[in-house]
């Protein structure tokens, strides 16, 4: 280090003696030999650092070390300078000798070392003689800090009855001294207060139980004092303490216990179900869920009359009335109640059963009670129009108390405002007081009151329902109109129809009907009636060989009788048709014409044949229509005579097909009219009379022209027999106003219409028409605006 920096500076210190110093050169370990008492330490030289003791309490500045260079010849020509942390304030240097001193006491826990820079310069020129060199001054630790518990005081818990060595908690103490130097920071733990219940590990600070079977019910809270001492616990070390509050948590190690074995309660016979009879409590030394108790009644004498529940707040057992008690029936009840823990700990099963039992005795108190009816309600039936005073039923009530007071009966007037009934006050029999009509009131609801003679305040009420029964007034009849048939191949004894009956009398359900043949019809050789006994009967064949040719319809009289009082009966006639059926007995047809159909031809086959015939007819009609359409002439018969046809008609038709429905000859030039033109909407007949020629172009009387045309249509036998519309419009010399168009105007010269093709797509068709006949007579047909004559012909 000295050779590289050209600074012959030796930095040293002794580890154990604060005031000792040493000097060094490049070639020798000591320059002063034995003078001054300085000796070489065993660990050798430590370069680039000094040591200074912390907490120095001397009056003089503490000597740190000495700086020296080989360039210093002792002639005071070299000056030493010091810079860096604490230079000038904490550390000072003698500029001539290079001795470094600490000006004040230092604390290693505040700052463990200081970094400084030293340099040797010429005292005259102040030029550096060597480059600046950096070194460190370390503050040497002394045991001046005691261990501290930063998280204390501590709180911990451990279950009661835990075995020895159960972990409780861990404490940790911190020492601010240097852990790498000596034993100043080596901490040892010990317990000062809390034995023999707990112990602490001297190295880790883990606290464990030291005594078995610690019972929370005996002592719940323990306060333990722990000491942490540095210097390995040796004499002279500093110590710190902390307190740990350890609580024993509860376990279920105690069973519930009743304070006494017998509990006495009383209950009145007038109490309602759910009334609280009393409370009991079993005490459990545990707490929390370990003290939760379930109460139950042990089956036995009277246990079914009561019930018990647990009050979750105070763990009391609440006894309530489950059923009504009666003093006259039973005067006392005795049963047992069991109290058991709800949450058991299997570790303590050996401690014995965690339950206890007590005896409950309940005495029933007598009360003056109202009379009691033998039934909760009564139902009675009576026929309408029953004579007055007829007894329809009776109610009974009695006093069950020990005094057994007589009972009197009455009808609550609010339930029988019209006084239809009356009751015997002593016997309780109910009779009619008015004529009853089912159609007016079918059911009466009355209330009977029973009163004790000895104590009229005690009364009871019961509901009585009186049904007014209907007298059998209406005879029975068929339930529905039946359409009965018998197959031609019906077998002997075959049921061909099941019949039932109905009756307008009430009730609709529960009626019984019987079916039979009338006495005069008992010798019927074709059919008979079999009564099934369930309000239905079957029509049974007595022979075979039914044929429609011989007889198509049979009529069977049926006598229906009900089971009412008095019995009503009626005779209904059942019509039976003879029909054809398939092999499974399904109906095919009942008409007589069907006899001549091929044998074995089913309905499906007939439908298929009809569909085929219809399809063939449709094909023929379509074919004829297509052929006829091809034979129709086009509207324009000659390219030489091209005109726009203006057609006006008021009837709805087939669109373009209607252009052939009228004679359009009059729309053309009268000079070009041909004779014997027929209508295009009908097929001409061979014997049709030719149509008379139309009015001449020289005719000036329009009215006469119209009349002539109407006459022609009236006489036309080929016209269709429906309303038709004929529109006649022509232009030319026949009009009084003469021609209104320039189409018939004579042109001296041929006009070239090629320019129409230059006007665009809209005039393409017009340019084609004019261009096609430009070399001929250029007789252009256009829309004619002239005199339009419209006639409507109403043919009936």
From TrEMBL:
<keyword id="KW-0965">Cell junction</keyword>
<keyword id="KW-0106">Calcium</keyword>
<dbReference type="InterPro" id="IPR020894">
    <property type="entry name" value="Cadherin_CS"/>
</dbReference>
<feature type="domain" description="Cadherin">
    <location>
        <begin position="150"/>
        <end position="258"/>
    </location>
</feature>
<feature type="domain" description="Cadherin">
    <location>
        <begin position="69"/>
        <end position="149"/>
    </location>
</feature>
<feature type="transmembrane region" description="Helical">
    <location>
        <begin position="595"/>
        <end position="626"/>
    </location>
</feature>
<keyword id="KW-1003">Cell membrane</keyword>
<dbReference type="InterPro" id="IPR039808">
    <property type="entry name" value="Cadherin"/>
</dbReference>
<dbReference type="GO" id="GO:0016339">
    <property type="term" value="P:calcium-dependent cell-cell adhesion via plasma membrane cell adhesion molecules"/>
</dbReference>
<feature type="domain" description="Cadherin">
    <location>
        <begin position="374"/>
        <end position="478"/>
    </location>
</feature>
<dbReference type="InterPro" id="IPR015919">
    <property type="entry name" value="Cadherin-like_sf"/>
</dbReference>
<dbReference type="GO" id="GO:0005509">
    <property type="term" value="F:calcium ion binding"/>
</dbReference>
<dbReference type="GO" id="GO:0034332">
    <property type="term" value="P:adherens junction organization"/>
</dbReference>
<feature type="signal peptide">
    <location>
        <begin position="1"/>
        <end position="19"/>
    </location>
</feature>
<protein>
    <recommendedName>
        <fullName>Cadherin-12</fullName>
    </recommendedName>
</protein>
<keyword id="KW-0130">Cell adhesion</keyword>
<feature type="domain" description="Cadherin">
    <location>
        <begin position="259"/>
        <end position="373"/>
    </location>
</feature>
<keyword id="KW-0677">Repeat</keyword>
<dbReference type="Pfam" id="PF00028">
    <property type="entry name" value="Cadherin"/>
</dbReference>
<dbReference type="InterPro" id="IPR002126">
    <property type="entry name" value="Cadherin-like_dom"/>
</dbReference>
<keyword id="KW-0325">Glycoprotein</keyword>
<dbReference type="GO" id="GO:0002009">
    <property type="term" value="P:morphogenesis of an epithelium"/>
</dbReference>
<dbReference type="GO" id="GO:0045296">
    <property type="term" value="F:cadherin binding"/>
</dbReference>
<feature type="domain" description="Cadherin">
    <location>
        <begin position="478"/>
        <end position="596"/>
    </location>
</feature>
<keyword id="KW-0479">Metal-binding</keyword>
<dbReference type="GO" id="GO:0007156">
    <property type="term" value="P:homophilic cell adhesion via plasma membrane adhesion molecules"/>
</dbReference>
<keyword id="KW-0732">Signal</keyword>
<dbReference type="InterPro" id="IPR000233">
    <property type="entry name" value="Cadherin_Y-type_LIR"/>
</dbReference>
<dbReference type="InterPro" id="IPR027397">
    <property type="entry name" value="Catenin-bd_sf"/>
</dbReference>
<dbReference type="GO" id="GO:0016342">
    <property type="term" value="C:catenin complex"/>
</dbReference>
<feature type="region of interest" description="Disordered">
    <location>
        <begin position="679"/>
        <end position="700"/>
    </location>
</feature>
<dbReference type="Pfam" id="PF01049">
    <property type="entry name" value="CADH_Y-type_LIR"/>
</dbReference>
<comment type="function">
    <text>Cadherins are calcium-dependent cell adhesion proteins.</text>
</comment>
<dbReference type="GO" id="GO:0000902">
    <property type="term" value="P:cell morphogenesis"/>
</dbReference>
<dbReference type="GO" id="GO:0016477">
    <property type="term" value="P:cell migration"/>
</dbReference>
<dbReference type="GO" id="GO:0007043">
    <property type="term" value="P:cell-cell junction assembly"/>
</dbReference>
<keyword id="KW-0812">Transmembrane</keyword>
<keyword id="KW-0472">Membrane</keyword>
<dbReference type="GO" id="GO:0008013">
    <property type="term" value="F:beta-catenin binding"/>
</dbReference>
<keyword id="KW-1133">Transmembrane helix</keyword>
<dbReference type="GO" id="GO:0005912">
    <property type="term" value="C:adherens junction"/>
</dbReference>
<dbReference type="GO" id="GO:0044331">
    <property type="term" value="P:cell-cell adhesion mediated by cadherin"/>
</dbReference>
